[in-house]
Write a structure and sequence with these properties.
The structure holds two protein chains of two kinds. By secondary structure, chain A is α/β, with parallel strands linked by helices. Chain A has helices at residues 4-13, 57-64, 87-93, 110-117, 125-138, 153-165, 183-198, 210-216, 239-247, 309-317, 340-345, 366-374, 389-402, 419-431, 449-464, 476-482, 505-512, and strands at 17-28, 31-42, 46-50, 72-77, 80-81, 95-98, 171-175, 202-206, 219-224, 227-232, 269-273, 289-293, 298-302, 328-330, 333-334, 348-351, 381-382, 386-387, 437-441, 468-472, 485-490, 493-494, 498-499. Chain A folds into two domains: 4-103 and 169-247, Rossmann fold (3-Layer(aba) Sandwich), CATH 3.40.50.300; 269-512, 3-Layer(aba) Sandwich (Rossmann fold), CATH 3.40.50.300. Chain A is built from 17 helices and 23 strands. The chains are: A alpha/beta, B mainly alpha. Chain A binds chain B through residues 317, 319, 339-341, 344, 350, 352, 354, 357-361, 363-364, 368, 371-373, 375, 381, 384-387, and chain B through 217-220, 222, 226, 229-230, 232-233, 235-238.
């Protein structure tokens, strides 16, 4: 390893532009994940990529890192043409990437993991000395002979960063690097990144956290629906203006026609919980969740994915029970201590986001999947332990005809149905049970437009029949068109609830980015 | 380039074609092995696989061998469907034999119709207890049931050895490591005038039918299957994983224990240091040969029982070591697993340009 000064000189000797992207497009079928994206990153610049889920940020960096091949457009790295065929090409050209989910081996030591990432290197003394030099220079502290499984998330990330830095990159891509870090670790990371930038290395920084972007980044590129909508100096922008640019103008397909009662202050279902620690450390901890839903009303919960929606769904449906019974009240009765099945008996039904492997079992037939949640209705279960295949099939037939599910028969396996048809079946399965409270998560994820409309109509009809619905969704159009009220979840914390009419895109954007809004 | 890709359409009979192909390939490979030893493959196959079945004695012996294989195979099929890998059926069988045998010896020379049921109950409880250990450790500490149940097998075998060398040794047996012979009321009746086939086989058939009913109609069977397929979906459905772990291992332990006590009271007639030629392990092959369908365990158990007889016949009439039994069984399992992979996947050859 050469001295840092030498690196800085070499890098600044090259042209001022580090990466140029011109007219890059990527299509998946008819869907344009990236359309005509143009981007320029200077040497030594820390450049933020901002946008909603599905805005095309990941697709863009995957093309830069050689994981995806662009369908059109060109790239230039350090004043020469650049078109990587795979991550190996990208690495040798000087591009390094730190992923959101760490690609390290738990059972190996830090040194062994770093050696694995470097072609032709072995975990020997010489390598250890080099690593320690790098650590010293960027103030990254790790113990080389510790095993990865003994390390926390911040330390694991440091191992990844060191591994990338050992390749002496000119451009470093970080995908939501602070999502797993504590505030102190975040601060340390920023010191390292500043140092890298001082040496003339460029950084692409993907984040949803606006505060960080404003502290750290020189420029920000805003993406929406696969296109670049603006390039701004984040220090000059307000949260609201950025939020608006990120979310954009919204068109709604079907405004909610019948808005239910401000006149009766009836509450069917209310939740008031303090801290909830999920079973898996991967899920977000919930703090101070307060919400309530009236009969006949739809409450939307918006938010960037991974902000605690999974834990919230589990808490609401009873997959995660709480020791304090009255933190969830259903029809004036405490239910927080009841499990899924007990809550189902009280009329609280749900439809999880993950259709296969959570809501249904792909290897089983449709009628067998009915037994999962509807077994206590229509005599499907006799004497509490004998299954009546006939009743289950009749139930499945009814779902299929009532909700227009396209399937050859109820003997078809769940995996053989298209996303939209399976979702219609799974929501229909719950609706036939006449839910009083219905919790549904991302019901139209990966569903075609026609089925989407149908599912929205199913939900609206259910609300008109007097049910209380909680719709957890990342689809802002869906939330604005279907719900009566909206709140936003960010870092496991729920915002105040707004009526859908008073909700604006910029407000929603600001809330999704974790901004506190006082009314 | 060779690629393995998932098949789009799989029909129910594909699995059975795979079983048939596996049997065929086993026969072919055994023929090749035999001819490499300088034997005529056709007549040798006939001598080791067909001739043992030519007499009442032979069939009776076949049923005797198939009894523990079917009893345990049904239990394992239920457990494996739930994704609980009880590899220690052999140990649970040994504990069943030991506990049932101990009850038989405690009531030695006491007559009564109630003696036999008590012995069977004792054996079942012994196996049940041995299955409960991995279940408890898995539920409480998430310990891997494969390792725990497997290691407990060796504990059980050593425990049996200690008991027949010590407390349970025949006081008039010249210090041989064997118990007294069980008296008549502590012995299961034979089915035929010749051979060792006994009433236990009838129990095994009843278990297979009962097992099928559990799988097809009982909610418990459905619950276990769902838990085996997806723990997240099972949780959403309100199924308790711990319950499935307990049920799978208790059914496995109890039925293996039952197979053990039936083996000592029906077949051996006393406790000896070695009561099972690895029936508990071989039953794993039986369960998979039956594609985890309890009713199909009956033909699968009979077939594998034949491999034991074939090994003995090979030793007697061809002078091949008795270890050939394991060769037959190993080949069968190998081809079976290979063929069942090809049910779900196809191999495609690509020409690299």
């Amino acid at each position: 390893m050469t001295e840092s000064v030498a690196i800085a000189e070499r890098l600044s000797a090259s042209s001022k532009q580090c990466l140029g992207v011109r007219g890059l497009s990527k299509f998946f079928g008819d869907f344009a994940a990236n359309r005509d994206v143009t981007l320029s990153i200077d040497a030594g610049e820390i450049h933020a990529l901002l946008g909603e889920n599905g805005a095309g940020k990941s697709t863009l960096v995957k093309m830069i890192y050689g994981i995806l091949k662009p369908d059109a457009g060109s790239m230039e790295l350090l004043a020469s043409a650049y078109s990587p065929n795979n991550p190996g090409d990208a690495k040798s050209a000087g591009v390094g990437m730190v992923f959101q989910h760490f690609a390290v081996f738990d059972a190996l030591t830090v040194l062994e993991n770093i050696a694995l990432g470097l072609e032709g290197r072995f975990p020997d003394k010489a390598l250890a000395t080099e690593i320690l030099e790098v650590c010293e220079r960027y103030r990254l502290h790790v113990e080389l002979d510790q095993r990865i499984h003994d390390l926390g998330a911040g330390e694991r990330q440091r191992v990844e960063i060191i591994r990338v830095l050992m390749q002496d990159p000119r451009l470093l891509i970080l995908d939501e690097p602070t999502s797993v870090l504590t505030p102190q670790e975040t601060e340390q990371l920023f010191t390292t990144l500043d140092r890298l930038s001082d040496e003339g290395r460029s950084i692409i920084y993907i984040s949803h956290k606006l505060d960080e972007v404003r502290v750290l980044c020189d420029r920000a590129t805003l993406m929406r629906a696969g296109q670049v909508v603006d390039v701004v100096d984040p220090r000059q922008e307000s949260t609201r203006s950025l939020g608006e640019k990120m979310i954009g103008e919204r068109l709604s397909e079907t405004k909610r026609t019948q808005t239910i009662d401000a006149q009766t202050n009836a509450v069917r279902f209310s939740v008031r919980v303090g801290d909830v620690y999920p079973e898996s450390t991967r899920n977000v901890v919930l703090t101070d969740v307060y919400l309530s839903v009236a009969p006949g009303s739809i409450l939307g919960i918006s938010g960037v994915s991974g902000n605690g929606q999974d834990t919230l769904f589990d808490v609401l449906t009873g997959e995660l029970t709480l020791p304090t019974p009255d933190s969830i009240i259903l029809n004036d009765a405490p239910v927080a201590h009841l499990d899924v099945e007990q809550r189902r008996h009280k009329g609280l039904l749900g439809a999880p986001e993950n259709r296969l492997d959570h809501a249904a079992i792909p290897e089983l037939t449709l009628w067998e999947n009915v037994i999962l949640t509807a077994r206590h209705t229509r005599g499907i279960l006799k004497n509490n332990h004998l299954i009546s295949g006939k009743s289950a099939k009749a139930f499945a037939e009814e779902v299929v005809t009532t909700f227009d599910v396209r399937t050859p028969s109820v003997n078809a396996k769940a995996s053989s149905l298209s996303g939209g048809n399976l979702q219609k079946f799974l929501i229909g399965r719950e609706l036939l049970g006449n839910p009083k409270v219905f919790i549904v998560s991302n019901p139209t994820w990966g569903v075609d437009a026609k089925a989407q409309l149908f599912i929205h109509q199913m939900l609206l009809k259910l609300a008109d029949q007097g049910a209380s619905i909680i719709l957890i969704s990342q689809d802002i159009d869906e939330l604005l068109s279907v719900t009566d009220r909206i709140c936003v979840i960010c870092h496991g914390r729920l915002s105040r609830t707004f009526s859908t009419e008073e909700m604006t895109p910029e407000l929603l954007g600001a809330l999704m980015l974790g901004q506190e809004i006082d009314s | 380039m060779i690629m393995i890709e998932a098949r789009a359409v799989i029909r129910w009979y594909h699995e059975w074609i795979a079983v048939f192909i596996a049997l065929l390939l086993t026969a072919v490979t055994v023929s090749v092995l035999l001819s490499s030893l300088g034997l005529d493959p056709i007549s040798s196959l006939q001598r080791i696989f067909i001739r043992p079945l030519n007499s009442v004695y032979g069939v009776s012996e076949l049923l005797a061998k198939a009894t523990p294989l079917i009893t345990i195979g049904v239990a394992l099929a239920l457990g494996f469907r739930a994704g609980i890998w009880n590899i220690g059926a052999e140990g649970q069988l040994v504990m069943g034999g030991l506990c049932g045998g101990a009850v038989a010896l405690a009531f030695w020379n006491i007559d009564g119709f109630w003696v036999m049921p008590l012995i069977l109950l004792g054996g079942t409880l012994g196996g049940l207890a041995w299955g409960a250990i991995p279940a408890f450790l898995k539920v409480r500490f998430n310990a891997n049931e494969i390792l725990v149940s497997l290691m407990l097998t060796y504990v059980a075998i050593l425990l049996l050895s200690v008991m027949v060398h010590g407390p349970l040794r025949d006081p008039t047996g010249f210090n041989f490591p064997e118990s007294r012979l069980f008296h008549d009321d502590a012995t299961l009746p034979k089915l035929f005038p010749a051979g060792r086939g006994h009433l236990g086989f009838v129990f095994a058939l009843i278990f297979a039918v009962l097992g099928t009913w559990v799988v097809k109609r009982w909610h418990l069977g459905f619950e276990m299957r769902v838990t085996g397929l997806s723990t997240t979906a099972a949780k959403f459905a309100g199924y308790n994983r711990d319950r499935t772990v307990w049920m799978a291992l208790l059914i496995g332990g109890g039925m293996s224990g039952f197979a053990g006590v039936v083996e000592v009271t029906g077949n051996i007639g006393q406790l000896v240091p070695n009561i099972s030629p690895s029936y508990g392990f071989t039953a794993i092959i039986v369960a998979f040969l039956a594609r985890l369908h309890p009713l199909a365990v009956i033909p699968a158990g009979l077939l594998v029982a034949l491999s034991y007889l074939a090994g003995e016949a090979a030793q007697l009439s061809l002078g091949i070591p008795a270890a050939s039994t394991q060769v037959f069984q190993g080949l069968l399992l190998f081809f079976l697993l290979g063929a069942s992979l090809l049910v779900n996947y196809r191999i495609r050859f690509w020409r690299v340009a």
